[in-house]
Amino acid sequence: MSSNVGLTTPRGSGTSGYVQKNSAFIKPRNTGYGAPYPPVSGANGSSPMDRPFKQRLPDKQILEHDRKRAIEVRVMEERDRLEEENERIEEEQAKTSKSKSKTSSKKDAEGDAKEEGEDEDVEKVLSEEEIDARCEILRVRLLKELEDELEGGGKGS
């Protein structure tokens, strides 16, 4: 091998030892006439690192999209919460119905009357339509708040 490039011997390396040029390596260009980049100033000039960072203003459509996406996330979280609550209520009702069937057979045998207020605090299982309606109400309320916030923010500026 010449110029100490590559392997001294290809034995045991699993390769032929042939060295190729790395075409992905880009040499730094001279910054002079004809270069696509602005010339670097001399010792007295300011370098690109000395200039302050200029923050670009985000696109209004992107900001609006992010706000609406946040609203949809909140609506989906509310939907998930309602569905989980429905599952919990259904499980509780299933458990209570099993226990009631056991106790009712005992009460029938004893001849006791049903206790008052037993079914008054039963939670209602929501249907899909009711969940959709509640989520739509939440969505409309949040969109209205967003519009009010944007209008209020525009007047204060």
TrEMBL record:
Localization, UniProt: Nucleus
GO annotations of cellular component type: spliceosomal complex
GO biological-process terms attached to the record: mRNA processing; RNA splicing
CWF21 domain residues: 63-147
Keyword Nucleus: yes
Database matches in PANTHER family: SERINE/ARGININE REPETITIVE MATRIX 2, SERINE_ARGININE REPETITIVE MATRIX 2
Entry's family note: Belongs to the CWC21 family.
Protein name: CWF21 domain-containing protein
